[in-house]
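User: Some background: our group keeps a shared notebook of sequences we're curious about, and every so often someone picks one and asks for a predicted structure to add to the entry. Today it's my turn. The entry only has the sequence so far, pasted here. Could you supply the structure so I can complete it?
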Amino acid sequence: MALHYYESLPQHPNGMRFTVFDANGDMLATNEYFSIGGGFVVNERTQLAHGENVYYRTTKPDSPAAGDTTPADKSSGSTSATETVQMDERTQQDLVTASLPFRTGNDLVQLCNHESLSIAEVVFLNELQWRSREEVISAAYRIWNVMDDSIKRGCLSTSVKLPGRLNVNRRAPRLYQNLMRGFYSPPDQDMLSGPHNSAISDGTAAPFTRPSILETSLTMMQRNELNGVFRKKQRSRRPHLPHLDYLSVYAIAVNEENAAGGRVVTAPTNGAAGVIPAVLKYYLEFLSEDPSRDILEFLFTASAIGMLYKRGASISAAEMGCQGEVGVACSMSAAAFTAVMGGTPAQVENAAEIGMEHNLGLTCDPVDGLVQIPCIERNALGAVKAVTAAQLALQGDGSHRVSLDQVIETMRQTGQDMMSKYKETSQGGLAVNVPVC
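Assistant: Of course. Here's the predicted structure to add to the notebook entry:
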């Protein structure tokens, strides 16, 4: 295997070329594959195939935009009979079309209004073209169960360090213990003895003590000027903001699991896997009155927004920077949170736009190439931003100056203009300014 660290194939930065040579060194065959984000791998022949773009492109099988859906030449000696059958089956599956196709955010909102459907209902009806009602619902619950398990494992992990030479400590277990203490059941006595006491003391700094007047350079006149202007305050013993704390600990838990090689849901990528689970978990724990239905509405709404980004730009940090990962996850979560809070399709679209607008230009510069710094904390901030974006959208009527389609196109252009050293290569930003010891 030959690694070309400073070269990239023109189609996509994350590419791999396979070449077969005979004993004389003559090339027999070659093919290139590209990892385009979110677990999708394509080559030149399949990148525009109908199956890869069923929700985004025209759904007529003979349309050029749908790509070449004809199976490979059966007379070619390079394709076995088994492979030919599999390709035929895939082609037949690909030719099934979405019952309610949409290409843009504007299309989606108009479709919802015309059919009197929510965004989640549009996605659900489209999924029924491929699977039964029971299969679609079961698959969605399975996705949520994996998300929920990743939160639980991250919060209850007993390991102290994350893998890699950055020597990063896991934070979710201690944050979760501190957060749960006093909010629900009385703390277990075992938790309050032994090594846990050090965690408590570490979490609360000693109160601030003012030096005597003789130790300062302030004059008495300056002190008199301060009189009555500011409230004398001490550091709170419990500086918790539950709304933010739960979102943060859930997101951090998932991304620490990802950093440790644990099982997470690609949502829309592994590096941004904590945002959607954190926001959904927060909603289910504190706001939901019907969790079973809310899980479906949340996930289906989020997926619709993700489809728009995948079609209109990219969900690959190698192309877009982190705006294509955490930015997209924030946008998806903001839209989904708005939907389960009772927002209209227009408000949902507005929330998605707000969620991305304030992540535009976000770089991907992981220190030492590990998905730890700044990725883990960035997911926590993405979750908080998503809820804030939803709240802003819910306060309006859905009308706004910047549309989701405009912000997706802006993200695409920004990603194209961004220097490669800020797009997952660890050659710029934090990756070169934070020493690795």
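Suggested note for the entry: Residues 133-156 form the longest helix (24 residues). Residues 46 and 52 are 8 Å apart (CA to CA).
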